[in-house]
Amino acid sequence: MSLTGNSAPGTGHVGTLTPDQTAALKKLWAAIYEIQEKGSVTIVPEPVPVPGTPAPAPVAASTGWGGGWFGSAAPAAPVEPVVEPPLTLTLEEIGLTAEGVHTALWNNVLGDNPDTLVLRFLRARKWHVGNGLTMILKAFKWRQEQNVEDVKTLGDDELEKEYPKFKNQLEMGKSFVRGVDKQGQPVVYLNVGLHRPADQDHRTLERLTLYLMETGRLLIQPPVETVALVFDLSQFGLGNMDYNFVKFLVHCFEAYYPESLGAIMVHKSPFVFWGVWKIIEPWLDPVVASKICFTSTDAELLDHIPAEHLPTTYEGGKDKYSYQYLPPVEGENDRMKDTATRAKLQGEWNTLAQQFEAKTRAWIVSADGEKDKLGQDRADIAKELRTQYFKLEPYIRARNQFHRKDAAGHSVVQEDGTAIWDYQN
User: In terms of residue numbers, what domain contains 135?
Assistant: First the structure.
């Protein structure tokens, strides 16, 4: 099975790039390095040809008004390339430092292939390198401003102290991840009927969203790069509607976590929702909107999610699963106190990151394709980086409920970073 369709050549994912896409990836990596070294970078876009207007069908020559100038076909207009002006970006105008770019880049890579991260922004900006660079730098700036790292380094109890009712959001099952769909995408269920805007501070809800975004990334297994969302509206009423939160969620997916959504199922929407939908729909990027489908019955969910993976709370589902929050376990983050081991593992990670960057710099100026010698060297180092990241992770990242063991002694996320779901069929 082709997971998320990413195996087809030219789809813009690692291992599928065309020569033009590889060239764009090289150009973006080069720009990321140059802006760190010089504080600014100028990107000269490649000319884009525009098809000329086709000539009208030839008319047979004749005497009088039927021939001559009026009866002859005019030649096709010449194809003139559209040349966009060079784009200059500076770290000062973005509000970042060179160190900030480097730190944000590698904090954001986690266990992914570094190319996977960069390609998300290129695809989101239709392979326009300048726009892709602008987008990724603004995302780095946003992560810095939002202090996204604290949802990884702080445990659930610490986040509760900082953001009141944080754990309550997890306990009530307002949103949870369970299993994968037919494309191998983790499925996020959002029970909208459990949400009331006034029940929690907006800061808590936004922090919870970032926590779920960063936690969910652990559940996505290569070559899959996306998640599926099920918006369960079976208990929806106007009192559940939170326009500010919807705007925040949409903006996160479009601007800061691009190319992360594979499918969106809006499930059992009542009549009252359609007035809300008319307000929300214009906010959506056309690419995101194209991934939305409306399911009116539980049986329709089975078109997307295997019965063995669908909870029995939905008719036709066979997974005897009922959401239960797994609370923190005493001592689960003790390895974060082991500074000596952390420093050793971090040093090994840093060495691999430096090797990847050195190979990337050589690859940028070579004629090497994605699958040739330097390209393969980079891919091999990326695999080592993933292995090393999960050795390091317990020393730099707090445990979450997907690391914790349930009553049967099973945890979803394993020590090596693989995610194994224990379906209860």
Answer: 17-45+81-146
Task: Find how far residue 246's CA is from the centre of its chain.
Answer: 17
Mean pLDDT score of the chain: 90
The DSSP line for 392-406 is HHHHHS---TTTS--
Specify whether the CB–CB gap between 107 and 149 falls below 8 A: yes
In a domain? residue 325? no
Name the band, by pLDDT with cuts 50, 70 and 90, for residue 7.
low
Peptide bond just before 327 cis, omega within 30 deg: no
Tell me the two tokens of residue 225: 């790069």
Residue 363 has pLDDT above 50, yes or no: yes
Residue 167 lies in a domain: yes
Q: Do 10 and 18 touch, CB atoms closer than 8 A?
A: yes
Q: Does residue 274 share a domain with residue 173? A: yes
Query: Is residue 9, in this structure, part of any structural domain at all?
Result: no
CB of 223 closer than 8 Å to CB of 15: yes
50, with CB counted inside 10 A (0-12, 13-18, 19+), is exposed
Q: Answer yes or no: do 294 and 236 share one domain.
A: yes
* Cα separation values, 170 from 116, 165, 210, 240, Å: 29, 9, 13, 17
225 and 345 share a domain? no
Is 24 among the domain residues?
yes
Amino acid in the structure at residue 39: G
User: Could you tell me where the DSSP H helices lie in 147-242?
Assistant: 150-153, 156-162, 166-171, 202-219
Is the Cβ–Cβ distance between 118 and 25 less than 8 Å? yes
Domain count of the fold of the chain: 3
- Reported as a single tens digit per residue, the pLDDT across 113-132 is 999 999 999 999 999 999 99
